[in-house]
UniProtKB/TrEMBL annotation:
Protein name: cAMP-dependent protein kinase regulatory subunit
Provenance organism: Paraglomus brasilianum
GO molecular function (one): protein kinase A catalytic subunit binding
Top-level division of the source organism's lineage: Eukaryota
Residues holding 3',5'-cyclic AMP 1: E157, R166
Amino acid sequence: MPENLFDDSRKRLRLEEADHQSHMDSNEMDENYTPAFAPIPQGHRIKHPCGKRRYSVSGESIRPADSSLPTPIHKTPIIIKQIEEATRQNLLFKNLDPETREHIYDAMFERTVLMGECVIKQGSPAELFYVVIHGLFSVHVDDAFVTTVGSGGSFGELALMYTNPRTATVKAITNGTLWAIDRTTYNRIVTKIAYNRNRVYEGFLREVQIFDSLEPEEIAKLADSMEAVKYEDGDTVVRQGETGELFYVIEVGSVDLVKHDGRREIQLPSLGPGKYFGELALLNDTPRQATIKACGSVRLITLKRDAFHRLLPATVIENMRRHAESYNNVSTYSGAGGVNVLHTT
């Protein structure tokens, strides 16, 4: 499960106490602009001719505990698919989890443009990111033509990260339709969902026995670094002999374990919610010791190798090592249920 670029934002946004500073400017909108977190009236069109903008900037402090997610703006399934395709390879979207992406797509609002209209002016403050649904747009830097962007393309993504001035001018070659989101709304969504997820993870991790000695601050840091991943029945989570980079805790469902010792294929006791696996590869820098498959739908939360070593205190590591000693004797593995020899060779 890739570590998220903004999860990334959960680490820097952690917290009820921490304020996330975002800047909402009026330079990309006229007086008729309606924020992306409110529905755009049917047929509403935003237009701001190049060179006729106001250059005032205001700030908004986002407290995840107090903020709410934006009201979804209706889109047809075709529009949603086009937005998904246009942002699939964009770094600010592809490393976000599906839930966050879905809320961002829901918050995007439509903007229609006329041929010759200036959408972005080089040097002006940046606030909006655009996906092109219909139309063709030219990109100019210092008045020199650079390229064109058509249906399925996008532009302005740096506005979601920085308040730096625009680095290019974008004009409509034809009439067109864009879907857009502003930086404040984008950050509000990423922050709020990360905050909500952290609260859930923290509550869950407090119930995991191996972590019962951790202080609240340690649990919070652990939750910040964990990512969820889902598997369906029969999916292989880890395969014996492969290199391991993740530690897993089972949040929902159960997994089956099978170990091949060279002569026999042995089924080990299944693991359910609150149990963990994958620590041996990280503790001993060895290949995976068993193949683990999902038994029904399974939701796991994962911790990458570097975070595993950085965040888990010596007492937890030592407890894991002691527990791991039982793996060497499959007849006492997990202290429950014994084992089942599936095949011999």
